[in-house]
Amino acid sequence: MSTVKQMLGGNIRQYGIVGALFAIVVLFEIMTDGKLLLPNNVASLIQQNAYVMILAAGMVIVIIAGHIDLSVGSIVGFVGGVVAIMMQHWGWPWWLAILSGLVLGSIVGMWQGFWVAYVGVPAFIVTLAGWLAFRGLAILLVGVTVSIGTQPQFVAISNGSIANFLGYVANRDVVTLVLGALVIALLVFTQLRARRVMRSHGLDVEPAIAVWVRLVVLSALVAFFAWTLAGSRGGTPIVLLIVGLVVVVYSFVTQRTVFGRNVYAMGGNLQGAILSGVNTKKMNFFIFVNIGVLASIAAVVTTSKAGAAVGTAGTLYELDAIAACFIGGTSVSGGIGRISGVMVGALIMGVLNIGLSIMQVDAAWQQVLKGLVLLVAVAFDLTAKRRAGTR
Amino acid sequence: MSYTTAPYSAEPSAPRADTILEMRSITKTFPGVVALQDVSLDVRKGEIHAICGENGAGKSTLMKVLSGVYPHGTYDGEIVFEGRSVDFRNIRDSEHHGIVIIHQELALSPYLSIAENIFLGNERSSRGVIDWNKTNADAASLLAEVGLRDKPETRIYDIGVGKQQLVEIAKALSKEVKLLILDEPTAALNDEDSAHLLELIEVLRQRGITSIIISHKLAEIISIADRTTVIRDGRTIRTYDMKAEKVTEEDLIRSMVGREMGSRFPKRNPNIGSEVLRIEDWTVHHPIQQDRKVVDGASITVRRGEVVGLAGLMGAGRTEFAMSVFGRAYGTRISGRVIKDGIDVTPHSVGEAIDAGLAYATEDRKRYGLNLLADIKRNVAAASLKKISSYGVVDSGAEAKVGERYRQELNIKAPNVDVVTGNLSGGNQQKVVLSKWIFTDADVLILDEPTRGIDVGAKYEIYTIINDLASAGKAIIMISSELPELLGMCDRIYAISEGRVTGEVPRDQATEETLMRYMTMENDSDQEVTR
Questions:
Q1: Could you give the ipTM of this predicted complex?
Q2: Hey, what domains does chain A have and what are their CATH numbers?
């Protein structure tokens, strides 16, 4: 048993969630008569769920640190509205509007971070206030809608694909295939390098066979995904690059930076972190600035997808992001969570969404099912931990 | 036993007619530790019976056995109350018999009123509906009995600790208490409140209520107790009849400590250098009761290669002193100076303290010391991320290497550094905490109860690590409740009482008796401190 664990890289729980995702995919593939994994559906799975993954990357940091953020959906509506107004009413170019949106998101984050970090108001309260206030501001600014139909580049972010300048092979988009190959190469390179570094420090490393098995499985998954996507209408959705960048950057931030270490330290033992010299006020401030920026990226993606700013855009997004975190194994009491797990959690929600939509299940029933999945996932997580006796 | 029983001590006598409580041969063990061994205690009806002993002698354990916190069956021996053998399953059981314990940390609910607290769990109600008039009226008459003039509707939050103590007693009276147990009742009180409380206990005695008082304040015991039982190392040493003989503080101290020291401590040849740290006139106030001084004008010095002890009884302010020096991690209205190598470095945050070369390894590993969810290597690196990162990016290879180095050097018993610290034993957790602070490369390490809750073998290893650090030129400040440990390890020992440094004793002059005398010295005493 212990060797099996070693083969898997030690973290059974992570693989449990991946297994659940796999099971759900297979289930819907069967129930939709193979429609779920049609190229165009895979592409729209990504386009429709990009916002969850982007928000969840910020949310998981907030939750690991022991807080919660209820305001991200409202910030999406507010920032999206301002960005649309900049382009449509003030005539700003699309890229300037996006940059300004990110700055605005960071200001919103500073505002909330100030109250949490320096006044000591619990994040639940601060972001509940933000949830109300930013939604109100969004509706005041936008009214019902502000169309951005005259900004094709902006609309393309969530609806367009990377230009196919390499042609087709076997009716598959070559750009997508090349990207897939690059990802696989990067995967192999980083895994082997990490192993070599460990060994050069004279530390125990996992057996080579375990690394290779893992690499082969992951590469096969990426290859399958790239191949499928290459057959879709446009190839690689632009938004996939944004999501991919967010995932890579935040995996790095959480696992490899001092900032990331301190987030885990605070969530694991706040008093202990303070007594280890962590400036928890500064940390809290920047945790909220960070999620403010990510919420504004999600705002751009959402506004682009809809082709218009809508006053109620982003409603309930905070709950999607929080659910993705918890399904992905983040601890409710903080201290535990990983970007990779959370992305799998977001995909589970996404597959449920699109699978049920393909099957034309009523939206109300979709909510019921998603609620149950969240409950079962966390219950499973807790019982697994209790059995392992770690908590 | 090294101490011979004096002729006038109370023999384990036959039960007398006026005996209300008799505990016979109580033995209580925890995994690996014998907390109480064959302890006997008899308490006469209507007396005030004091129990004293060092920290960890077993006083609180004995009271927990008596009050049913440790239920019948988890200990050996017999408890006879009012002539009948009793076996309590929980606190409710013992309260039914009229035994009420008031703990050192008061167990009142701060946002409920005095009356609600008095009748908590014992509400004045009919069919589940509370009768507020009866609640407040009954509370008012109980408050009159204990001499508290506040209204029953007042919130606990709004009254001081002294009054809260009285509310606890009123609560006990509401349960028709026959035997009242007070654990360190005056530890948190000022002189006036203490005096009032002791008077009240005397008044209750005249009404036929028997009291057991656990106290470190020997003067208090001498003035109020009818009899005093001394417990040491989980055994009853003797019972003094305070009225029949003239018992002095010295007598009590000698009974409390007298114990032999073996070779439980590794040898070290002190190589003491120049002064590295000087703390001057350090004063700290309680974070909530801001007019209460927890540390009062304390001054100490430490030299390179020296192990300096801080001795003090529970609540003396040792931990508060250390934590407030360590970047104001405790307390408010802090004043004083921290001078390191001749430069004023008085730190205002933990970060500054670490940068100044200070380290503080906490007495409470689980609450303050470790991230129990994280593995060994991350805990070791937690206070020194600057050292293994550049531009905010952690070199995880270096991190693993550092963890591995300390795993081997300090003999942390785990297969590798990826083991989550929550799964380690107490001794190994302590080694991780020490690794963390050694890795910061601090010049002065403050070790607060470094051997608390760990077994004898691991203790020896920790002592060895401390000696090695001192030999390497580090200055060590060691806080401990165990006097033999301080005597065995330290080159010099400061005694602290009620937040003040009451004595400084070099190794060759230090005995448990002298330390205990300084440790029990009270604020207003005029005794001259020999330097």
A1: 0.80
A2: 10-160+238-388 (1.10.3470), 162-236 (no CATH)
Please return the burial class of B127, using the count of CB atoms within 10 Å of its CB with bins 0-12, 13-18 and 19+.
Answer: exposed
Average pLDDT, chain A: 89
**Rounded Cα gap, residues B256 and B221, in angstroms:** 14
List the domain range (segments joined by +) for residue B64. Answer: 1-98+217-260
Task: Express each pLDDT in B438-485 by its tens digit.
Answer: 999 999 999 998 987 776 667 888 999 999 999 999 999 999 888 888
Q: Is A271 on the interface with B (CB under 8 A)?
A: yes
The answer to whether A2 contacts chain B (CB < 8 Å) is: no
Query: Same structural domain for residues B468 and B367?
Result: yes
Return the closest-CA partner of residue A198 out of B380, B399, B409.
Answer: B399
For B369, the closest of A259, A272, A279 (CB atoms) is: A272
Q: Kindly report the number of other CB atoms within 10 A of residue A256's CB atom.
A: 17
In a domain, B136, yes or no: no
Q: Phi first, then psi: what are they for B359, rounded to 5°? A: -140, 145
B351, B368, B423 ranked by CB distance to A272: nearest: B368
Q: Which of B260, B292, B326 is where one domain is finished? A: B260
Residues B395 and B482 in one domain: yes
pTM over 0.80: no
CATH number at residue B510: 3.40.50.300
The answer on B323 and B221 residing in a single domain is: no
Tell if the CB–CB gap between A276 and B436 is shorter than 8 Å.
Answer: yes
Are B250 and B390 part of one and the same domain?
no
B195 has a chain A CB within 8 A of its CB:
no
Regarding whether B495 and B388 lie in a shared domain, the answer is yes
How many of the other CB atoms lie within 10 Å of CB of B328?
Answer: 18
B360 and B456, same domain (yes or no):
yes
Nearest chain A Cα distance for residue B394, angstroms: 5
Indicate yes or no: CB of A277 within 8 angstroms of CB of B371. no
Whether residue B186 is contained in a domain is answered as no
In the beta sheet, which residues pair with residue B180?
B100, B211
Following DSSP, what letter does each residue of B271-331 receive, concatenated? Answer: ---SEEEEEEEEEEE-SSSTTSEEEEEEEEEEETT-EEEEEE-TTSSHHHHHHHHTTS-S-
Query: Positive or negative, the Cα torsion across B120, B122, B126, B132?
Result: negative
Torsion angle (degrees, nearest 10) of CA B87, B89, B90, B91: -20
| Highest-scoring range by mean pLDDT, A55-64, B103-112, B141-150, B192-201 | A55-64
Nearest CB among A204, A261, A271 relative to B367 is that of A271
The total domain count for chain B is 2
pLDDT tens per residue across span A247-269:
999 999 998 899 999 999 999 99
3-class DSSP state for residue B393? strand
